[in-house]
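Progress report, Aim 2. The chain analyzed during this reporting quarter is listed below.
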Amino acid sequence: MKKITSTLIAIILIGSSAMAEVEKKVSSKINNVTVFLQGAQVQRKGKFKIDKGITKIVFEGMTQQFDKNSIQVKGKGSFIILDVSSNIFHPVPKAYVPNTMPVKIKKEITQLEDSISDLNWLAKELKIEVDGYKSEKTMLLTSGVIKGQNVNDSIAALIDAMDYMRVKLLELNKLIFKIDKKLNNDKILLTKMQARLNELKNYNYNVGNVAKRQLPIQQIIVTVSSDVETYGTLEFSYMVPSAGWSPSYDLRADDVDSPVKLTYKANVYQNTGIDWNNVDMTLSTINPNRSNVKPTLATWYLRYFQPIVQSQGYYNKDSKSKMAKESAMAPAALSIREDNIASGADFQWDELEEAAHMSNFTQMNNNMAMVEFELKIPQSIKSDGQTHLMAVTSEEIDASFQYHIVPKLDKDAFLMAKLSGWEDLNLLPAIANIYYDGTYVGQTRLNPSVMSDTLELALGRDRGIYLTRKKTNDEEKVKKLTGQKEKTVTYQLALKNYKSTSVSIIVEDQTPVSTIEDIKVELLEKGLADYNKKTGKLVWNINIDAKETLKYEFTYILRYDKDKTLALN
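Predicted structure tokens for the chain:
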């Protein structure tokens, strides 16, 4: 019976020792990052080999900032994931290793200490010498002979004394200056020698022989169990708050016969403390920090309005400055990798193909909750908090182009583009840079929540279209029967198309509009213009051929009290 009991105890001990937990540190590398509008999900991967039993696989090298509640783990191999946890490991400082300073370092320290001592004694000796020269100067300047206190001295003796003083003072000043210069140079040399001496005395600390303060190490611990010795991989991810991206756009129109090209760009930043080197990146339009709880609509109770009386001069300065700060946007920098190329006279530069853009290697995934841009080329983003600009995708948008001229205010023609179909592009509110024919013309703000089905863009001035506006008639006369003054005004518009193609132009002008009973406005001639009597606006829709000149006129008459003067601009 005792033999059987001993055997069972041995089996239990062997089994328990076989199932004892083993800790194994495994290195991991960032292989994928999903960047949200605020925050990012970092994915790491590690490979390992484990023995039979339970093993605690410890991953290190993560940022201190990650959200421990967001850890997700999956693996491949013949093992079972039992538990996932995080831990902060505080390393034990390295012990001081005494008497490890090389003989060469000790010898240099001794030589420096001797040299510094010699320089200090020399400085004291030079200061004593300077004090002697200064005392001699004082005696010379206070001498009774120099001051002329001896009335029996002749003029010749006084002149000799002055000559002597001049020569002697010059000699003493030169000696003092020379010593001061020497002292200053020695002081500079002494400072350098003292710095070098301090560096040598800190040799042990610099090479790690002295205990140094080490930062805590963030760990993710995955406990696995396996019945056999096996190889495996683990992928784990976590959320970090100090990263994100913001959109911006480029709108490019090459000419009036081509669609507008929209380039979707991303300003990506991260300040996690760990660089993202050559990682697969996905940009997501989700903001994980926003609440996902459905709002509850409370009962709406009616009551009478009671005005709140505030003291005069109240001004909420803080709220206004806060609103101004929140409405501001910060602009970013485009990283370009340059390869060295050999230049030569025989190289056919004109035959180079157009370079591929980052937007050619982006796949857009759209679902009900979000839009993701999966970048097909690995990216590298330093942990510097700086924005890194990259092109995400490019789309062509159907556009119609129209020239507009308001000659009363500006005689230049402005090209406008009307874009349709943009609502299918999943745009976010952001600033857009506008380019026409390769030239930057300005900025606009795209806000899908407030824009209509058609988006209008101003593409700038076109000097190929010229319009003159000239007043050809301005006649005043008084009607004797009515006692009213009549003023007849005629304007002539001359439109010239210098371009090599025909264009469509909208020209706008106006007549005055009266809001006073005894002032009357009547349009006598408008030609082909559309006229809005309420606003006084005249609009011509003109198609003009290349190199063609067209002229238009409009005439209106004003009737008003002859004893009053009209305020005309």
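The longest strand covers residues 454-478. The chain is about 20% helix and 45% strand. These observations will guide the mutagenesis work planned for the next reporting period.
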